[in-house]
Every structure is written in structure tokens, then in C-alpha cells.
């Protein structure tokens, strides 16, 4: 048997299984790669929101990254919820030691809050995101709330979306993807990809669904899987955009709050498998 491409997510756990490390692993599986995890935090969470956060010691986060990278090998990595400046510093150091963000692509999804508005990143950690993480990133994938926190730009128009891409690029990543999904008045979902010279507009349909928990995680992890399989950034982002669009269409209700987007659309015959 051949060993599949291996991906690493450095992120938090969502006990409800909708977002975070659970969304990443589900996406990695659906994309046909071997997913590995460096857990940063345990959240107490269901479809209604987050009621508790317990962080993992920074040195344990770093040790998980180094353990899998030195033995199993990583073809691409991503970060999600990092919780504190101390964890971000530990992640930056560990990534440097195993060449993640150098020869190994690193996708940084600068998760700041849950969709219910529960904080997943300490306010004092924003500067560490800007100075320690963005300069190491192959690609950063902020939504418009994260763009506002990181750059101060409140994006409401396509031209402001371009200004934000430039401001984010100036923080040091090789590529920036400014996701337009939160521009709800827009009939389409326009994500803007920028490498410091050229803007690439990725347009997808906007579905009228409320179950969108884990959408950012699913996009970033599908891009990471595509990078691990050897795609360049432009084709990986195009593949990821297609993957998240289909996963939003396949979203399902869960609990009495917000349900998750679903990569299960990718599995043949998923509904009838194990049916008696
Ligand atoms: O979707 C962003 C996200 C990432 N990671 C964890 C989360 C969430 C959203 O709730 O709980 C652990």
C-alpha cells in the first residue's frame, strides 16, 4: 500500500464535532489525505455556542508538531484556533524547527471567534498573529471579521476588499485570501486571492443556509489537503473553494442551534452505507 499525503492541523477541539479539529479531520479524510493533529485547546461546545475553553500547555502544542513532523512527515499544515500569544509563539518556534512555513506550505486561518461570537483568541494575541504567524504563512484565509480585527479595515465593498488584501499582504504572507462570505448583501460569494501583484477573483454561489458552522475550517483544510497533494496555491484555493461550496450545500441541522457544513457529499453512497 502507498502512504497517502499527510496533513497537520494545529487547532482547537469542538466537542460538538462541527468545527475546529473535528471539521479539519473530516475534511482531510474526505479529501483522501492522512490527517494529524496538534491540539491547542479543548472547547466545551454544542450547536448553541462555546461555554468553556481549556488551553493546552504551549510546550505540549510544540511537542505534538515536532513528534508527527519528524517521524510521519507533513506535506502541508494549517492553523486554526490558537487561543493565546504563548501558544502562537510555541507554534512559530516548532514550525521553524521542522520547516513548516518554509519548504512545507502553511495555511493560517486566523480564527478569532466562533460564529456565535464567543472569543477563541485572547485580545492580546492579535499582535502575535500579525508578527509571528503571518510572516511564516504560505497563505492566510481571514473572514471579514478577522480582517477588521487584524487590519482595522471594515470591508463593505469590493474595493475595500482589495485594500484589505494589500494591508494583509504587507504583514508578510506569500498569499492572501480575503473571504467575502460575510458580505451578506452580495448575491454571490466572492473571495479575493492576492500575491502582492495580481488579484484573482473566485466567485461561487451563495446558498441560503443557516447551518454554516465550521465553514472557514473546512475551506482552509481542503486547501491544505490540495497543497499536500502537490497543487500550487492558485489551484489549491480553486479546489478548496469548490469543496467548501459543495460542503455548504450539504450542511445539515444539528441540535437546536447552528449545524455544520458537511464534506460528506464527497463520500459515495454515504447515506446508505451500514443501512440494514
Ligand atoms: O470555526 C472556527 C472554529 C475553530 N476552532 C474551534 C471552534 C470554531 C468555531 O466555533 O470552536 C475549536
Key phrases:
276 residues, alpha/beta, UDP-N-acetylmuramoyl-L-alanine:D-glutamate ligase, nine-stranded mixed β-sheet, 8 helices, 9 strands, 35% helix, binds 3-hydroxy-5-(hydroxymethyl)-2-methylisonicotinaldehyde
Would you give an account of this structure?
- The chain is built from eight helices and nine strands.
- It is an alpha/beta fold.
- A nine-stranded mixed sheet has the order 3-2-1-4-5-6-7-8-9, with helices on both faces.
- A hairpin with a 4-residue loop joins strand 8 (about 190-195) and strand 9 (about 200-205).
- Bound molecules: 3-hydroxy-5-(hydroxymethyl)-2-methylisonicotinaldehyde.
- 3-hydroxy-5-(hydroxymethyl)-2-methylisonicotinaldehyde (PXL) binds near residues 13, 45 and 80.
Largest sheet: 9 strands, mixed
Radius of gyration: 17 Å
- Biggest sheet, spatial arrangement of strands: 3-2-1-4-5-6-7-8-9
Q: Which parts are unreliable, with pLDDT below 50 for 5 consecutive residues or more?
A: none
Structural class: alpha/beta
Q: Hey, roughly how much beta strand do the residues contain? A: 15-25%
Query: What's the CATH architecture?
Result: 3-Layer(aba) Sandwich
Secondary structure layout plus pairing:
Blueprint: E1 6-14, H1 20-30, E2 34-46, E3 49-55, H2 58-71, E4 76-79, H3 85-97, E5 106-108, H4 126-133, E6 139-140, H5 144-151, H6 158-169, E7 175-178, E8 188-194, E9 199-205, H7 215-228, H8 233-249
Parallel strand pairs: 1-2, 1-4, 4-5, 5-6, 6-7
Antiparallel strand pairs: 2-3, 7-8, 8-9
Helix pairs in contact: 1-7, 2-3, 3-4, 7-8
The chain binds 3-hydroxy-5-(hydroxymethyl)-2-methylisonicotinaldehyde.
The site of 3-hydroxy-5-(hydroxymethyl)-2-methylisonicotinaldehyde (PXL) has 16 residues, from strand 1, strand 2 and helix 7.
